[in-house]
Every structure is written in C-alpha cells, then in structure tokens.
Amino acid sequence: MANITSAINVNVNSKIKKEATEILKNLGINMSTAINIFLTQVVKKDGIPFKITNKENKNSKK
C-alpha cells in the first residue's frame, strides 16, 4: 500500500515552537517527525499518550 501523507496546519505559541524546535533538534528529529510520533502514539493508546492535569508540576521550570 502506498504511503499517503496529509498536511496539518496548526497555530502554536511562537515561544513554545522555538523552544520545542531547539529541543527536538538536540534529539536529532524535526517537528514533523515529533508530531508523527505523537499521533502514532495517540492511535496506539486510543487517546492522549500522557497524563493531562490542571496543575503545574512543582518541579517544573517557569
């Protein structure tokens, strides 16, 4: 079966995009690959592949 791709256009906070791009670059992947990994996990887990909460982690950077 042919590998058919589709484009996704999303609006993202510019600061978050810049920071995420740098982190992903250090990991050796680009934004497209990271998003594909995320969406693949959404399908495999049948939902968001991590816990979502209202509260910030006490140890997280601000």
Outline:
Helices cover 47% and strands 0% of the residues.
Radius of gyration of CA atoms, rounded to a whole number: 14 Å
Largest sheet: none
The string of secondary-structure elements, in order, is: HH
Instruction: Supply the number of helical segments.
Output: 2
Question: How does this structure look, described?
Answer:
- With 62 residues, the protein is an all-alpha fold.
- The chain has a domain at 14-45.
- Helices cover 47% and strands 0% of the residues.
- It has two helices and no strands.
- The N and C termini lie far apart (46 Å).
- The mean pLDDT is 92.
Key features?
62 residues; mainly alpha
SSE order and pairing:
Layout: H1 14-27, H2 31-45
